[in-house]
Write a structure and sequence with these properties.
Largest sheet: 7 strands, antiparallel
Strand content: 35-45%
Number of strands: 12
Radius of gyration: 18 Å
CATH topology of the largest domain: Rossmann fold
Order of helices and strands: EEEEEEHEEHEHEHEHE
Distance between the termini: 27 Å
Shape: globular
């Protein structure tokens, strides 16, 4: 079992990925370990009251983890996190959560479906899976606007370098009338890219309404409920 710890982290890097999302890299102790799909808690003191916010571990490497932080309009905590700068110190508790690859994930095909920053844990889970399987792995990601796509280059590069990986993104409300990518909801990607007689597992991450709608859609297509694993952000 992985050890859950509290530690002080230093911010190593901050990037503005989209108008509302920043990716932030945090230092972690040498002994820090996690299972792809897990999250950490950021511990803040706001007006003398402890506040915790939970974010999935996305991209990671030696000595750091990264999280994708969406700035919630009129939010109490996310605007504060968006003001964090390089070299700031942050208290972190983790790793936490059970949204991880199933033990037999490397032996079957897997589909990952996300909307918005729900794609973040898949930036850790999918590379882990691709490192140990030649089975088909598919990522379907949905966004409202074309300037909200995160980790697009990261997943596109994985797509180029792994013959068994497919990556598809869709925009529901493109702002540019000349936008040439896929338009629609993430459900339209399922209609187009769910393999015939798919016998693997499906991992979902996003808001409740998406999870509910997609789960119902998958069940109607013959995928048993126990083969649908999900993490909600609300």
């Amino acid at each position: 079992m992985l050890k859950i710890t509290k530690f002080e982290s230093e911010i190593l890097e901050v990037n503005q990925e989209t108008p509302s999302v920043k990716t932030i890299r945090f230092s972690v102790p040498e002994e820090f370990e996690f299972n792809p799909g897990q999250f950490v808690a950021f511990i803040l003191d706001i007006d003398g009251k402890e506040e915790r916010r939970f974010y999935s571990i996305a991209k990671h490497g030696k000595g750091y983890i990264e999280a994708a932080i969406n700035k919630v309009k009129n939010g109490r905590v996310s605007p504060i996190i968006h003001n964090w700068k390089k070299e700031d110190k942050v208290k972190i508790h983790g790793p936490l959560g059970m949204f991880v690859l199933k033990k037999d994930a490397f032996e079957k095909e897997n589909i990952f479906i996300a909307t918005g920053t729900g794609v973040a844990p898949f930036a850790a889970m999918i590379p882990k899976l691709l490192s140990g399987t030649d089975k088909k792995v598919i990522l379907l990601a949905g966004y409202k606007h074309e300037n909200e796509i995160i980790y697009d280059k990261f997943f596109s590069d994985l797509n180029k370098n792994n013959k068994n990986f497919e990556y598809h993104a869709v925009i529901s409300r493109p702002e540019n009338p000349q936008y040439k990518g896929s338009i629609g909801r993430v459900q339209s990607l399922i209609e187009n890219h769910l393999p015939h007689n798919f016998a693997g597992d499906v991992y979902l991450c996003g808001l409740y309404e998406m999870i509910k709608d997609v789960e119902q859609m998958l069940i109607q297509k013959g995928i048993a409920k126990e083969r649908i694993i999900f993490e909600r952000y609300d």
